[in-house]
């Protein structure tokens, strides 16, 4: 059982504190990964700020790449020494949803991990002085983590190890929204509200899917400039211009698909308001608990609008596709990652994220020597 330098969230609204935790070895169908890098995601910030309930003390971090160090019984698709990226959704493969291919709403992932901070035998793999430590997904803000094998994917040569961490949430979530849920088609018009890590990934992937127009909407000109670099054909600063009027001025009507990537009442309403007749609103941003939608019901009914939720993607099909896009050079990991941090800067990374100072995706280079 390796002793793992980690960052622990002891209580809500507290800094992530460096500590050492014990990581138990992998059980059947699990993989021990030495972490090379871990992404900085707003969902973890929700947990830190107690906007999403989660047990504490906990190790956060759910966007991981690294090297396989040990595999549990039954794992044959990866072996020690393999370079891997891990999806934040860790499907059990056996619940009623997984059996239908709906791995992104795996019951065991939500009931055991998201509600209890455990893996699927009802225990955590982390402890400190005999005390259990909760795991947020695989608990990637550490030197080592244990991951259910269905969430572990080998990386081909040529795909950079450190940067591949962001494949497992930012791009994985974006791919689920663009391809699995919205089914964006060549020639369609798209708007993306909130050009953060996930929003920029959606912009990038929507263009790769053939969207003719991709309109980025945000309140930060620097983020909008980066959105243009990643494929946005048009940008609207909603702090200085009415985005509904702006979309109509650009297109003469609403968009075929509007993606909401922040998670707020106002931006969800905006996603619906900028749709063309028959359009699709895809909600991919996590909102604080208790926030509800504010939409015009008659408009949704009369204009045949569709509202979808999108949380990640089916790991077994989406992660190979995202990795393939990276291998083919169709997604620019270097450009998506705008801020890099050393492992000891983990808490600072979330402070900057909370202050909206990270434009794209932040990356914590946990063990850069592994690359």
UniProtKB/TrEMBL annotation:
SMART domains: PKS_ER. Keywords: Metal-binding, Oxidoreductase, Zinc. It holds the Pfam family ADH_zinc_N. Its cofactor is Zn(2+). Gene3D superfamilies: Medium-chain alcohol dehydrogenases, catalytic domain, NAD(P)-binding Rossmann-like Domain. Residues 11-364 form the Enoyl reductase (ER) domain. InterPro entries: ADH-like_C, ADH-like_N, ADH_Zn_CS, ER, GroES-like_sf, NAD(P)-bd_dom_sf. It comes from the Bacteria. One of its GO terms (molecular function) is oxidoreductase activity. The keyword Zinc applies. The keyword Secreted does not apply. Belongs to the zinc-containing alcohol dehydrogenase family. This is Zinc-binding dehydrogenase.
């Amino acid at each position: 059982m390796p002793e793992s330098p980690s960052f622990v969230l002891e209580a809500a609204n507290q800094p992530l504190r460096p500590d050492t935790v014990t990581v138990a070895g992998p059980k059947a169908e699990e993989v021990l990964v030495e972490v090379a890098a871990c992404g900085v995601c707003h969902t973890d910030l929700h947990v830190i700020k107690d906007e999403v309930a989660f047990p504490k003390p906990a190790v956060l971090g759910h966007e991981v790449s690294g090297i396989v160090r040990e595999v549990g019984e039954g794992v044959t698709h990866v072996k020690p020494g393999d370079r891997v990226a891990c999806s934040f959704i860790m499907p059990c493969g056996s619940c009623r949803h997984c059996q239908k291919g709906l791995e992104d709403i795996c019951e065991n992932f939500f009931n055991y991990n998201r509600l209890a901070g455990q893996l699927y035998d009802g225990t955590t793999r982390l402890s400190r002085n005999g005390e259990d430590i909760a795991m947020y997904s695989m608990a990637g803000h550490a030197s080592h983590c244990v991951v259910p094998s269905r969430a572990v994917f080998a990386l081909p040569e040529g795909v950079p190890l450190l940067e591949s961490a962001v494949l497992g949430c930012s791009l994985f979530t974006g791919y689920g929204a663009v391809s699995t849920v919205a089914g964006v088609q060549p020639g369609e018009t798209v708007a993306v509200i909130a050009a953060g890590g996930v929003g920029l990934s959606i912009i990038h992937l929507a263009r790769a899917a053939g969207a003719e127009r991709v309109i980025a909407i945000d309140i930060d000109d620097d983020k909008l400039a980066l959105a243009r670099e990643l494929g946005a054909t048009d940008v609207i600063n909603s702090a200085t211009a009415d985005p509904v009027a702006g979309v109509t001025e650009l297109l003469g009507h609403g968009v075929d698909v509007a993606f909401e990537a922040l998670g707020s009442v106002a931006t969800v309403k905006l996603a619906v308001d900028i749709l063309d007749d028959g359009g699709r609103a895809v909600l991919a941003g996590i909102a604080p608990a208790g926030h509800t939608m504010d939409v015009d019901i008659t408009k949704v009914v009369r204009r045949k609008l569709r509202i979808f939720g999108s949380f990640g993607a089916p790991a077994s099909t989406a992660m190979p596709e995202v990795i393939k896009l990276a291998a083919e050079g169709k997604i620019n990991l270097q450009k998506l990652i705008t801020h890099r941090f050393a492992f000891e800067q983990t808490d600072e990374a979330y402070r900057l994220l909370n202050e909206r100072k990270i434009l794209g995706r932040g990356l914590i280079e946990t063990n850069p020597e592994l690359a």
